């Protein structure tokens, strides 16, 4: 997956730590545990043609978390680009 530019990004994480930099959009959501006003960060990822082919062939999408603690996460599909 390639890092995408999420619409309305509010900051870029990781550049000062030597990573490529991850554009994020800070937002508040209504979560089932945290309720209304739960802080969240949204990123965008663009699958490569090979990854698209594997997804179409029913390959799973993996979410890799660095470290030993697993924060709450969500995956969804964004809007089709115009």
From TrEMBL:
Q: What is the top-level taxon of the source organism?
A: Bacteria
This protein's name: Uncharacterized protein
Taxonomic source organism: Rhizobium halophytocola
């Amino acid at each position: 997956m390639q890092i995408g530019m999420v619409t309305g990004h509010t900051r870029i994480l990781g550049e000062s730590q030597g990573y490529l930099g991850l554009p994020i959009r800070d937002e508040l959501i209504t979560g089932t545990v945290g309720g209304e006003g739960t802080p969240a960060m949204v990123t965008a990822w663009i699958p490569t043609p090979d990854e698209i082919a594997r997804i179409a062939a029913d390959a799973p999408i993996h979410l890799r978390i660095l470290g030993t603690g697993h924060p709450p996460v969500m995956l969804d599909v964004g809007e089709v680009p115009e």
